[in-house]
Specification:
single chain, about 325 residues, alpha+beta, four-stranded antiparallel β-sheet, three-stranded antiparallel β-sheet
């Protein structure tokens, strides 16, 4: 992986990633995702955004599973930061018995976290009325009103996030420092039926924990809502975008940071046993992400990803000042 040929190959790939156009020159018609990526990339290059979303800095560095799983616990690592998520339980108001909630997963879980954090920052309130605002959020992401099955999938992920427990730890000088927490301290469970008469257990109102809400006010990472919407089809793309948004602006000036491939695999490679297999998917996804974050300086090499200090997606002058 460290040979001259490998580095030459990645240098050429880096040049391709940096091209103005997000689309490959192919004879086939563009997909809906490709069209949206191209249109949004052009809009981001031409206009400063007034559409700002927020994500907690910790959640920009660690994430949920990419796919649905039967596991009750899930672990991930980013450098010296370790994350464990445990699926929760909730009382079914119809049967009056506790039922298992799944682990949150996929792009919808990530979009909901962004939605919860953004709503809390804008309103400066821990209590979020999901039923009143969730449909508008999905509509903004998709460019159209969601149908019944789409709303049901989002509501299922809201319930999974509301019930989950999170443990974060780090190792410093041979000592393990751990924090046990939940993102949501209170949620009202309602039992409703969707258009297909399937039972849906979901919270209508959620209340963020005080600890999480207080740290969010000081550690909210601003994201371009247009980019979030364009990348909403991919959990990995959302993870990479949020990570770069909080990481690149903290790199010292005139200094590069190399993130090795094995570290990238630990952070983003859930479901990919082989680093070579993961690397191909990561590079394809990175190309989409960089099209939506044109100020980002992130170049792949044979050793890993070279990061340079970059402007954040949202200028500081556009941020809310609570």
């Amino acid at each position: 992986m460290n040979t001259r040929d490998d580095n030459a190959e990645f240098a050429a790939l880096g040049d391709l990633i940096r091209q103005d156009s997000v689309l490959r020159k192919v004879a086939r018609p563009l997909s809906r995702v490709e069209t949206r990526l191209a249109q949004t990339a052009e809009e981001i290059r031409q206009n400063v955004s007034d559409e700002i979303s927020y994500q907690h800095t910790v959640l920009c560095q660690t994430g949920f599973p990419y796919r649905e799983t039967n596991l009750r616990r899930w672990e991930r690592r980013n450098g010296r930061v370790f994350l464990e998520i445990e699926a929760g339980r909730a009382l079914d108001p119809e049967t009056e018995k506790y039922v298992d909630l799944p682990l949150p997963f996929g792009s919808k879980a990530r979009l909901i976290l962004i939605y919860l954090c953004s709503t809390a920052v804008r309103s400066q309130s821990q209590v979020i009325d999901v039923d009143r605002t969730m449909t508008a959020f999905i509509t903004q992401l998709q460019g159209r009103e969601p149908n019944g099955p789409e709303i049901r999938k989002f509501k299922q992920q809201i319930a999974a996030i509301a019930g989950a427990s999170i443990r974060m730890a780090t190792v410093i000088e041979g000592r393990s420092l751990q924090v046990n927490s939940q993102l949501v301290s209170k949620f009202d469970i309602l039992l409703k039926k969707d258009d297909y008469s399937q039972r849906v257990l979901w919270p209508e109102t959620v209340e963020l924990t005080t600890d999480f809400f207080n740290t969010l006010k000081d550690h909210a990472v601003p994201l371009d809502q247009r980019a979030v919407a364009a990348l909403a089809h991919s959990a990995m793309a959302l993870d990479i975008y949020a990570w770069l948004a909080q990481r690149l602006c903290r790199i010292p000036s005139k200094s590069d940071a190399l993130v090795p491939w094995f570290s990238l695999h630990e952070q983003f490679g859930s479901g990919y046993k082989q680093i070579r297999q993961f690397r191909k998917v990561f590079l394809d996804t990175l190309k989409d992400v960089l099209s939506q974050y044109p100020a980002a300086h992130a170049s792949p090499t044979g050793e890993g990803l070279v990061l340079k200090r970059s402007s954040p997606p949202i200028a500081s002058s556009k941020l809310l000042n609570p």
